[in-house]
């Protein structure tokens, strides 16, 4: 019966009706796995970077579903739980957003925020990661690692570079400490792109400036290897992203200047060597023109997540106003949906609802307190 519910917010409301229903959902991992496969978690909105001195803004998607609307009303999407200093938010900027968490950074620390539960964890910066580096040291970016079946534990991967070397550090909420890994030689000369990493199936993929390659950092083994890019990708345009299909396969999506979208999926040839297998070349100009009522400008791939490509398209109107549209494209149906548009930049982070901890059994204890807290 629960599998017939339309989405995750509806399941939350049903499960919290009584303790026995909540216990049924919490105690069955196979049920949760099947429900996720049948009903992917909904996209609730986009976090937008509007001002480097202010907290990010949240733009909710205007859905007619009352359960999704209820989830939005209950969350801290204005990020009021972030700590303030001297009456300001001390320049918090988003560096990652996944699994219900938003990872933010300022000059002093990181913050992992779960708007649905109002939970905030302030994480210290990994100062020891600079050891053995020179003047060219720099932080490249940060990524969140968490598990849908263990939302109480999270990890943060920090990637930094120094000339032709790269190093990773991993923070664990269980030890509340950073594990610093050795420097690895990757070649090049400070040519890894800043804040351009993509997390796919537990590995971080990081592209180079002007090179048809990226590095893959396996966060389980910390092995670093080179991965080639399709030759058709214009690496100077910075208009491509690695991501994952709905079934978890590594893919590359590239938006060309002529509004053609190219998709490749990683496979192997007859000798077992990794290759990029072309999938589709889509002409998006007519469809985007329909959504934007004729406006066409610069198309950019924002993210590729769980079989969806998130795109931005910005242009200058005849009266000199910058307008930006955010769109989503399903790699299965190839249908485009307009998400939001307005007079803002094209930096955005899709926020997808995660399973609330109250629906997952942590230690087999009674569900009474969880029901009261969730209400």
Automatic annotation (TrEMBL):
The name on file for this protein is F-box protein AT5G49610-like beta-propeller domain-containing protein
In terms of superkingdom, the source organism counts as Eukaryota
InterPro entries (alphabetical): AT5G49610-like_b-prop (IPR056594), F-box-like_dom_sf (IPR036047)
Task: Write down the Pfam families for this protein, in alphabetical order.
Answer: Beta-prop_AT5G49610-like
Origin organism is Aegilops tauschii subsp. strangulata
- What region holds the F-box protein AT5G49610-like beta-propeller domain? 94-358
């Amino acid at each position: 019966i629960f599998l017939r519910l339309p989405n995750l917010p509806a399941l939350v409301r049903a499960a919290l009706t009584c303790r026995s229903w909540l216990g049924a959902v919490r105690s069955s991992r196979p049920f949760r796995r099947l429900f996720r496969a049948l009903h992917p978690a909904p996209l609730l909105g986009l976090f937008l970077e509007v001002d480097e001195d202010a907290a990010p803004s949240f733009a909710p998607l205007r859905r007619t579903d009352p359960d999704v609307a209820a989830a939005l009303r209950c969350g801290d999407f204005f990020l009021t739980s972030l700590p303030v200093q001297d009456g300001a938010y001390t320049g918090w900027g988003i560096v990652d957003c996944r699994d219900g968490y938003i990872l933010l950074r300022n000059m002093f620390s990181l913050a992992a925020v779960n708007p649905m539960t109002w939970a905030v964890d302030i994480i210290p910066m990994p100062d020891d990661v600079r050891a053995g580096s020179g003047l060219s040291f720099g932080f490249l970016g940060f990524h969140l690692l968490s598990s849908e079946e263990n939302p109480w534990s999270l990890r943060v991967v920090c990637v930094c570079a120094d000339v032709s070397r790269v190093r990773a550090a991993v923070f664990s909420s269980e030890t509340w400490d950073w594990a610093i890994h050795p420097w690895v030689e990757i070649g090049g000369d400070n040519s890894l792109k800043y804040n351009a990493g993509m997390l796919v199936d537990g590995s971080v993929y990081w592209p180079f400036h002007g090179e048809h390659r990226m590095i893959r950092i396996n966060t389980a083994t910390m092995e670093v290897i080179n991965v080639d890019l399709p030759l058709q990708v214009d690496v100077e345009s910075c208009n491509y992203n690695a991501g994952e299909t709905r079934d978890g396969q590594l893919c590359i999506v590239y938006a060309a200047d002529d509004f053609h979208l190219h998709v490749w999926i990683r496979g192997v040839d007859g000798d077992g060597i990794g290759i990029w297998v072309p999938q589709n070349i889509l002409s998006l100009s007519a469809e985007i023109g329909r959504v934007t009522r004729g406006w066409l400008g610069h198309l950019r791939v924002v993210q590729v997540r769980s079989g969806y490509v998130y795109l931005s398209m910005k242009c200058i109107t005849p009266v000199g106003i910058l307008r930006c549209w955010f769109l989503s494209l399903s790699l299965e149906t190839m249908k485009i949906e307009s998400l939001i548009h307005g007079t803002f930049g094209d930096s955005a982070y899709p926020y997808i609802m995660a399973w609330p901890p109250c629906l997952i059994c942590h230690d087999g204890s009674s569900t009474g307190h969880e029901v009261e807290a969730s209400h």
